[in-house]
Amino acid sequence: MTGPLSGLRIVDLTTIMMGPWCTRIVADLGADVIKVEAPEGDSSRYGGNARNHGMGGGFQHTAKRKRSLVLDLKKPAARDVILRLTAEADAFVSNIRPAPLDRLGLGYEAVRRSNPSIIYLSMVGYGTGGRYAGQPAYDDLIQAASAIPTLLQRSTGEQRFIPMAAIDRIVGTVGANMLLAGLLAKARTGVGQKIEVPMFETMVQFVLAEHMQGATFDPPTGPPGYARTLSRSRRPYATQDGYLAVLPYNDGQWRRFFEAIGKGHLFTEDPRFADIVARTANIDALYDMIADELKTRPTSKWLELLHKADIPCMVPHTLETLMEDPHLHDRGFFEIREHPSEGRIRTMREPSSWSETPPPEDRFAPRLGQHTREILAEVGYVNSEIDTMIAEKAAFEERDR
Question: Distance (Å, rounded) from C-alpha 105 to C-alpha 118?
Answer without folding.
Answer: 16
